[in-house]
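Handoff note, outgoing to incoming analyst
You'll be picking up this chain. Sequence as last confirmed:
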Amino acid sequence: MTGGELTLGAVLARLEEREREITAQAETTREQITQLTAHLDELDRAAEEVRITRKTLLELPDPRPPAPPAPKLPDHPAYQQIMAVFTAASHPLRARQVCEAMDLTVAPNNINNIRLKLKRLTDRGILAETEQGLFTQPRP
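Most recent structure output, in case you need it:
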């Protein structure tokens, strides 16, 4: 045998070294596979939880929209008198008719003040203006 040739012992030593390298790589790969499998299982569980949540939410009945809060009547006693007039009335009223029902003097100043109060009640949704200057309680 010449110097370039390998002896049987050297070839066997190289094969053994290569086998150890391959075994180490295989073990590292097995560990990575174990970690990836565990991660894949976690992702599958999370996806299943999302599917269950979606299914549960789709099966829930549609929630009813919350009822709007009842309009608040201003504190001034005149507003309560006005509402008493509308409660007793069976038809829409004008500002002049409300003045008469409240036993106010039918004067432009009083009519304008009542009209402003009626508009304020309309803006709050307590009364409705069915046509220009004609007010009534809204019907459900």
